Amino acid sequence: MRLLVGLGNPGADYADTRHNIGCWVIERAAARWSIRLARKGAAQRGSGRAGSKLVELASTLDWMNLSGPPLKGLLRELGLTPEALVVVHDDLDLEPGRLRIRQDGGSGGHNGIKSVIEALGTPQFVRLKIGVGRPAPRQDSADYVLEQVSAEERAIYAPCLERAVDALELLLNRDVATAMNQFNVREKAEGGERAS
């Protein structure tokens, strides 16, 4: 079994913010794999299969900056190690819609990932990063990621969310290296490059 967690903040006020894009991916994965997400504690959770692989999906375990302790508890409840974990989250250093998979590493300044690393005592878990781009000059990064996304911007993210679920499927049913090779690249598109 693998545990796939989308980081974000709980509540309707935050549901449509850039910081919750990891939760959007989990919702999209649940829809594709016919997994019903239901409230359990502080999280939306559900179990099912992605192809032949058994998965547990979860999102919004707690406030973003406090994600680590409840995630550690969820791993313990499921009898899983950090190596079975895939965390999906927003990334300011990637342009909007670009994906990047990492096997491990530091927090990159992301407070949710920092909390997870501190709680688990290891950086040895997979991350699927979703680019949200940088804020405008003089705009605070925290304000930027907590802004409501417009309908137009959400439409831009829609194909990225589908590719993110494709990446998760490949990661689960093949391996991390294969998924990295396919999704950590820019794809050529007619008229220029398209971020992937």
TrEMBL record:
Catalytic activity annotation: an N-acyl-L-alpha-aminoacyl-tRNA + H2O = an N-acyl-L-amino acid + a tRNA + H(+)
EC number: 3.1.1.29
UniProt xrefs under InterPro entries: Pept_tRNA_hydro, Pept_tRNA_hydro_CS, Pept_tRNA_hydro_sf
Active-site annotation: H19 (proton acceptor)
Keywords, in A-Z order: Cytoplasm, Hydrolase, RNA-binding, tRNA-binding
Keyword tRNA-binding: yes
Molecular-function GO term, any one: peptidyl-tRNA hydrolase activity
CDD domains the UniProt entry points to: PTH (cd00462)
SUPFAM superfamilies: Peptidyl-tRNA hydrolase-like (SSF53178)
Function according to Swiss-Prot or TrEMBL: Catalyzes the release of premature peptidyl moieties from peptidyl-tRNA molecules trapped in stalled 50S ribosomal subunits, and thus maintains levels of free tRNAs and 50S ribosomes.
Family: Belongs to the PTH family.
UniProt name for this protein: Peptidyl-tRNA hydrolase
Organism: Nitrospira defluvii
Lineage: Bacteria, Pseudomonadati, Nitrospirota, Nitrospiria, Nitrospirales
Gene: pth
